[in-house]
């Protein structure tokens, strides 16, 4: 009987489930194993973590069900020499076909050019070639939609709101939570530097306020770029690009939500369309850079018992406090803030229970 078992291939697809096999050093043949379902860790951005996938391998907090070897391997009749006690087994682990090994090779070059493409194509907007007509047109186009809808979408660009919206990821998919957290510093730097060095008045300072709808406080300066749009697209693109190419096809709605957040900044009269376009470009770049940073994140940061995830849970609790005690951007958002605070609090409690079980098991 073979002394050890290992997975020699991992292939994912709608028509083929992952298969396990053992490879004999004596004959070079692969023997099929009878799999059983056990939890296995999700891949990190650099590929599958190098660990032995056995029936007793414990998963990280984010897990999916994949087949692994159950008990001793059952070699086929064609590999009779495997029954020899002298045979050693060769563990081989191949990376997921949708992942890459080097951080900056996570995405094709054309994807890295996407932020630049958005920036160049939107040049007439941020150069104000079509202003103020374009802003007035879009602002009036959004009038039939109630103001609370736009203010709620705008909350997706607020840091505390984002923490509450993504709080369930802390329990269900910590890798995706880390993806946007890694992108957040880049988004903050891009937005702050732009607002500090670019003198750009807001629409309310140049357009007759009778021709536009203004929701909330009337703002007059520090317009470029839209910080809410940059934040929303940094979070959405970081999560979106952290998914495998197959998963991205089913989750394009994430980017649509971010686009809604950007459009809401025009609908409430806070930003020019050019500010939103530049925010989209910077947010996409922040999301890509965040995934590069995610690729270097240690795998232990995904464990429910690790201190870094507990720190994120504390940040979510801070978000709950501000959602319940502060008015974030608009008074119309107060009911939504309470709802998000409840969701975030339940998510933290679920994570705390999982973390406690992980500590007890260790």
TrEMBL record:
GO terms for molecular function: hydrolase activity. Keywords: Cell membrane, Hydrolase, Membrane, Transmembrane, Transmembrane helix. InterPro entries: PAP2/HPO, PAP2/HPO_sf. Residues 179-291 form the Phosphatidic acid phosphatase type 2/haloperoxidase domain. It comes from the Bacteria. It is found in: Cell membrane. Pfam families: PAP2. CDD domains: PAP2_like (cd01610). The chain crosses the membrane at residues 109-129, 149-170, 177-198, 218-241, 253-270, 276-295, 307-324, 336-353. This is Phosphatidic acid phosphatase type 2/haloperoxidase domain-containing protein. One of its GO terms (cellular component) is plasma membrane. It is a multi-pass membrane protein. It comes from Rhodoferax lacus.
């Amino acid at each position: 009987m073979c002394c050890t078992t290992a997975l020699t291939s991992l292939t994912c697809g709608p028509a083929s489930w992952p298969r396990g096999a053992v490879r004999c050093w004596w004959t070079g043949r692969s023997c099929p194993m009878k799999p059983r379902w056990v939890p296995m860790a999700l891949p990190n951005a650099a590929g599958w973590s190098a660990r032995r996938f056995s029936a007793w391998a414990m998963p990280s907090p984010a897990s999916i069900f994949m087949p692994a070897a159950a008990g001793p391997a059952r070699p086929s009749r064609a590999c009779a020499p495997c029954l020899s006690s002298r045979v050693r087994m060769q563990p081989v682990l191949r990376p997921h076909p949708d992942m890459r090994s080097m951080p900056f090779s996570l995405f094709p070059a054309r994807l890295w050019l996407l932020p630049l493409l958005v920036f160049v194509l939107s040049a007439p907007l941020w150069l104000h070639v079509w202003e103020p007509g374009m802003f007035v047109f879009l602002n009036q186009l959004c009038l039939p939609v109630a103001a609370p809808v736009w203010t709620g979408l705008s909350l997706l660009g607020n840091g505390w709101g984002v923490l509450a919206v993504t709080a369930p990821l802390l329990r269900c998919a910590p890798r995706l939570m880390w993806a946007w957290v890694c992108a957040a510093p880049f988004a903050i730097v891009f937005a702050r530097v732009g607002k500090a060095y670019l003198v750009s008045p807001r629409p309310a300072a140049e357009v007759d306020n009778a021709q536009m709808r203004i929701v909330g406080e009337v703002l007059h300066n520090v317009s470029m770029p839209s910080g809410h749009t940059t934040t929303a697209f940094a979070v959405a693109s970081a999560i979106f690009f952290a998914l495998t190419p197959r998963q991205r096809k089913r989750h394009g709605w994430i980017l649509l939500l971010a686009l809604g957040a950007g459009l809401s900044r025009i609908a409430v009269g806070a930003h020019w369309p050019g500010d939103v376009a530049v925010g989209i470009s910077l947010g996409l770049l922040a999301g890509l850079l965040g995934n590069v940073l995610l690729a270097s994140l240690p795998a232990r940061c995904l464990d429910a018992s690790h201190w870094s995830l507990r720190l994120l849970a504390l940040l979510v609790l801070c978000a709950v406090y501000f959602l319940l005690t502060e008015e974030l951007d608009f008074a119309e958002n107060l009911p939504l803030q309470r709802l998000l605070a409840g969701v975030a609090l339940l998510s933290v409690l679920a994570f705390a229970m999982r973390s406690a079980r992980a500590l007890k098991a260790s």
